UniProtKB/TrEMBL annotation, chain A:
Residues 68-280 form the ABC transmembrane type-1 domain. The chain crosses the membrane at residues 12-32, 72-93, 105-122, 153-177, 207-227, 259-280. One of its GO terms (biological process) is transmembrane transport. It is found in: Cell membrane. It comes from Oceanobacillus polygoni. It is a multi-pass membrane protein. Belongs to the binding-protein-dependent transport system permease family. This is Raffinose/stachyose/melibiose transport system permease protein. It comes from the Bacteria. One of its GO terms (cellular component) is plasma membrane. InterPro entries: ABC_transporter_permease (IPR051393), MetI-like (IPR000515), MetI-like_sf (IPR035906).
UniProtKB/TrEMBL annotation, chain B:
Residues 67-258 form the ABC transmembrane type-1 domain. InterPro entries: BP-dep_ABC_trans_perm, MetI-like, MetI-like_sf. It is found in: Cell membrane. It comes from the Bacteria. It comes from Oceanobacillus polygoni. Pfam families: BPD_transp_1. The keyword Transmembrane helix applies. This is Raffinose/stachyose/melibiose transport system permease protein. Belongs to the binding-protein-dependent transport system permease family.
Amino acid sequence: MNKVMSNKWIIILYTFPALLLIAVLIVIPLILSGYFGLMDWDGIGAMEFIGLDNYIAALQDTKFWDSTLHSFLLALFSACSLIGYLAVALILASKIKGASLLRKIYLIPMLLSSVAIAQLWIKVYNPSNGMLNSILLGLGIDNPPAWLADPNIVLYAIFVPIIWQYAGFYILIYYAALKNIPESLIEAAKIDGATPLQIALKIKIPLIMNVFKVTIVLSIVGSLKYFDLIYVMTGGGPNGASEVMASYMYKLAFSSYNFGYGSAIGFLLLIITLIVTVIIRKLTVSKDEIQY
Amino acid sequence: MRRIGYTLLYVCLGLVAVFQIFPILWLFMFSLKSNQEIFAGNPFALPLEPRWENYLKVFDGGIGTYFWNSIWITALATVLTILVASMATFAITRMKWKLSSLVLGLIMVGLMIPIHSALIPLYNMFLNVNLIDNPLSIVITYVTYNLPITVMILLGFYTTIPREIEEAAIIDGSSIHRLFFRIILPISAPIMSTTVIINMIYNWNEFVFVNTFISSEKYKTLTVGIQNFIGQYMTDWGAIGATLVISVLPIIVAFLFFSNKIMEGITASAVKG
C-alpha cells in the first residue's frame, strides 16, 4: 500500500502539468518583469540594458505616484466599507425572514463581468441621459455633476460600482461565518440579559474576527490591483485623475510601447502588493496576540 | 418599540437590495427602448412597446462569434483546469512524499500576485512562440491562473477522503490511475461541480488576457467583443443595452439554477485563504 502511494514516477506525473504551467506562466514571467524593467525596450526591437534607470525614473514620475496614491485611496475606501458590509451581514444573520433571497440579490452584481459593470455604470453616470442625473433632475437639482468627466469626482464615482460589485461577496462571507457561531452562545448571552447590540459587538464580531482579518487582506490587495473596471470606465482619465497602478502599467506597455518602463512599473506593483500583504498580515496577527 | 426596530432593519436591507438590483433592471428596460424613449422618459418606466429589434440588430452585427468563442474557451479551459488541478491535489493530499507542502505552497503563490505584473513578460513569451492572436494562449493562461483557486477548493474535500477507500482499491489490485479516474474523481463530483461553476464564471468574465493577447475579431470573447460593439453603436442606447444583456444573461440564468453551488464556491474560495 505505502509503496504504491509513494511511487515517485506517479507523483511526478500527477503534479507535473500543474507545476509546469505555474512555473512557465506565473513564476518566470514575474521574475522576467523585474528583469525587463532593467531594459530600454519598445517590445519589438532589441533590448538595451540601462540598469536601474527605469526604476529611478518611476520614483521621480509624478504620474506613477499619482496612480499609486489613487490605488491606495481605493484600498482605504474598500477596507472602510467592510464595516458597512459587516453591519448588513449582522442584520441579515439575525433570523431575518427572506435572508436567503436577499443574500442572493446582493450577490448578483459580483457575478457580472467587470466590462459589463463598467459599461452599465458609464450609462448610469451619463451626464445628460444617465439614470443618476435623470433622478437628480427629477428631484429638482439643477446642474448635476458630470461624474466621470469631472477630475475631482471621478475617483469617488468609480468607487460606487466597486462597492456595488463586491458588497454581496463580503456580505456572503460574513453571513456564512456568523451562521457558524453556535446558537448556544447567543442563547446564553440572551439569558444573561445582553441586548442585541451587545451580543453583536461583544460576541459575534470577536468570534468572526479571523474571517474579518482575511477580508481586510483580500479587499486591500484586491484594490491595489484593480484594473478592468477602471480601464473600461475611464481609461484612467480625465487627465490621469482615475489612473491606478495597473492601468498606468498597461498604458505604458500596450499604448505607448514602452515595455521596459512598463515592466518596471509592473514589478513595482508586485513588490508593493507583497509588502502591503506582509504588513497587514503582521498587523492583524500582533493584534491577535494582544487579545488572548 | 421592537416592531419599529425590526421595520427599520428591513428598510435598511431592502434599500441595499434595491441598490444592488435596480441598475440591472434599468439595463433590461433600456435594452428594450428607443433612444427617444430613454432620453425623454422617466428612467423607471417600463418600455411602451418592447423593441426586440434591438436584440436582432445586435445579432445581425455579429455578436454570435464572440458568444461562441466565450462558450468554447470557457468550457475547454474549465475542463482542463479541473483535470490538472484534481491530479495535482490527489498527488499532494493522498500520496506520501516529502515535498508535497512545498509544491502546494508554490501553486498557492498564484493567489497572491497581481496578474498585471506578469502581463508584459507573458505577452512577450506568447509573441516568441507565435501564440499571440491564437486562442490557445487564452486557454492555457486561464488554466494556469485558475489552478490555485481550484486546488484550494478541492483540497478540503480531498483531505477528508477515508484511507480505507484507497486501501481497498489497491488491495484489489487496482492501479493508481484506475484509483484516481474510477474512484477518486467520481466521489469528488460534488466539490468538482463547485469548481466547475466558479471556473466558468471567472473564464466567462475574464477581460485583460483576451484584450492583450487577441487582436482578430474572430477570436475575441464577449467581454472584449462588447467593447467594440459599444464603440460602434456609440449613441444607440437600445443596442448597447441589448449587447450588455446578452453578455450577462448566461451568468444570471446559471445563478438562478445553481445559486447554492455558486455561493458555496465563492465562500470556499475566499475564506480558506
